[in-house]
Write a structure and sequence with these properties.
This protein is α/β, with parallel strands linked by helices. The chain folds into 3 domains: 127 residues, 3-Layer(aba) Sandwich (Rossmann fold), CATH 3.40.50; 181 residues, pyruvate-formate lyase- activating enzyme (Alpha-Beta Horseshoe), CATH 3.80.30.20; 55 residues, OB fold (Dihydrolipoamide Acetyltransferase, E2P) (Beta Barrel). Helix content is 35%, strand content 22%. It has 13 helices and 21 strands. The strands form 6 sheets. A 6-stranded parallel beta sheet has the order 2-1-3-4-5-6, with helices on both faces. Strands 17-18-19-21-20 form a 5-stranded mixed beta barrel. The chain has a 3-stranded parallel beta sheet with strand order 7-10-13, sandwiched between helices. β18 and β19 form a beta hairpin. α9 packs parallel to α11. The longest helix has 25 residues. Bound molecules: S-adenosyl-L-homocysteine, iron/sulfur cluster and FE3-S4 cluster (F3S).
């Protein structure tokens, strides 16, 4: 590489959306590191700023444009004094609205989708030559085959994408369009990446995919492996202590995966299993291909396999055609399952999806009222679950400093945030903590053995 490329330059990445985007941002940092880019938390001094965007709901795009406005100011100020600053838009908004971004924001240098960021070195070269870059292909060769072997940007708790894209086509969702068709990596590739992450200090790995339990990667034995088999193999790796996976579809929860929850101690007893609605009529209109009772049955099987398992979910409130009764059915499903936590979103029409053409819209005021009622119930359940942990001793993986001096912050097996006073040397370790307080969004605890 020529000298200017190896000089230290600052890279600022802002990430929205799902964990896949978090993983992608880390991989972008890995790719740019040999070109001399070092990550920074602040855009002020950055030589390259990347917005890794999400297109899932309408507001997501608005946020990107308001953030771009701020970055433009930094760019102009720096360039006034002779610097060169590059602005890139990546991720799902870039994929869906790439041309529009280039047109509306002439100061943006590069636009690239989730499947092409491995080509960043070539793109940077072009942009350095003052060519505006747009790259929203779905290349035939997967980016995973071309990403660097370095995994410097992840710590004790790491993400590993094992599957990408989605063929389910829920009628409200942009993911099949922005991420493309479903694709599973090979087991050998995944195990290799897991080993590299562990060598780099990872004790917890979260396996990622838009439909992670639809994973069907080729195994080293030439057979197709499901997620259960992959998890059992990962669990044999020394140094790895915790395994999680997200996000799952209820239809792909097969018996082997359910059994793994009972048999694999390293698999954490917490599962994010989005259902979207408790009404069969709405589930059908969403093209979810399961009923509310199918979902209840999956939850029951998982509880039979692992009695202490806790659940979270996603619900969409105010989908076209949702009546008071349909909404009540969603509330009832929440009462039946008893979630540890739950996300709920007001339906947002996404251009190009089948639901965007549906006529029987729910009035925004009604959808907002339902959302408030829904979130009240969820908050009650979340507090109840967190309080039910008080008095228990849980293994906490401390991975950052707490707000107060002398405090560390970590995650319980149920993925709750736990604050405790603890020595710095306990950072990056799983420590036995007695839970002393349970609140809406976090727990407090006392370290048992110092
Ligand atoms: N693959 C996951 C979810 C991906 S998107 C799954 O199958 O469940 C994350 C969440 O965003 C979804 O679970 C859904 O609750 C929400 N979401 C997706 N599209 C939406 C839309 N058009 N309006 C509101 N919420 C939406
Ligand atoms: Fe979207 Fe449905 Fe695929 Fe999830 S399963 S990513 S909600 S289309
Ligand atoms: Fe958003 Fe794309 Fe993830 S739309 S939720 S960043 S797959």
């Amino acid at each position: 590489m020529a000298a200017p490329d190896t000089a230290k330059k600052k890279l600022f990445i802002k990430t929205w959306g799902c964990q896949m985007n978090v993983y992608d941002s880390k991989r972008m940092a890995d790719i740019l590191s040999p070109l001399g880019y070092q990550e920074t938390d602040s855009p002020d001094q950055a030589d390259m700023m990347i917005l890794n965007t999400c297109h899932i709901r309408e507001k997501a795009t608005d946020k990107v444009f308001s953030e771009l406005g701020r970055l433009r100011e930094h760019k102009e100020e720096r360039e006034k004094v002779g610097g060169k600053v590059m602005i890139a838009v990546a991720g799902c908004v870039a994929q869906a609205e790439g041309d529009f971004i280039l047109e509306r924001a002439p100061y943006v240098d590069m636009v690239f989708g989730p499947q092409t960021y491995h080509e960043l070195p070539e793109m940077v070269l072009k942009a350095n030559g003052n060519e505006r870059v747009i790259n929203t292909d779905f290349p035939a060769v997967s980016k995973f085959d071309l990403l660097p072997d370095e995994h410097k940007s992840q710590g004790v708790s790491a993400f590993l994408s094992i599957q990408e894209g989605c063929d389910k086509f829920c009628t409200f969702c942009v993911v099949p369009y922005t991420r493309g068709a479903e694709y599973s990596r090979t087991a050998a590739e995944i195990l290799h990446e897991a080993r590299r992450l562990i060598e780099n200090g990872a004790k917890e790995i979260t396996l990622l995919g838009q439909n992670v339990n639809a994973f069907h990667g080729e195994g080293p034995d030439g057979k197709v492996w499901g997620l259960g088999r992959l998890i059992r193999t990962l669990a044999d790796m020394d140094g790895l202590e915790r395994i999680r996976y997200t996000t799952s579809h209820p239809r792909d929860m097969d018996d082997d995966l359910i059994a793994a929850h009972g048999e694999v101690a390293k698999l954490m007893p917490f599962l994010h299993l989005p259902v979207q609605s408790g009404s069969d009529k709405i589930l059908k209109a969403m093209n979810r291909k399961h009923t509310a009772d199918d979902y209840r049955a999956v939850i029951e099987k998982l509880r039979a396999a692992r009695p202490d398992i806790a659940f979270s979910s996603d619900f969409i409130i105010g989908f076209p055609g949702e009546t008071d009764q349909d909404f009540e059915d969603s509330l009832q499903l929440v009462r039946d399952v008893r979630y540890a936590s739950c996300y709920s979103f007001k339906y947002s029409a996404r251009p190009g999806t089948p639901a965007a053409n549906m006529q029987n819209l729910v009035h925004d005021r009604i959808a907002s009222e339902r959302l408030i009622r829904f979130q009240q119930l969820i908050n009650e359940q979340q507090i109840a679950f967190n309080q039910s942990c008080v008095g228990k001793t849980l293994g906490i993986l401390f991975d950052r400093k707490g707000k107060k001096d002398g405090q560390l912050l970590g995650r319980s097996p149920y993925n709750q945030s736990v604050h405790a006073f603890a020595k710095d040397r306990l950072m990056n370790h799983i420590v036995e903590v007695e839970i002393t307080g349970g609140f809406e969004n976090s727990l407090t605890g006392e370290v048992l053995k110092i």
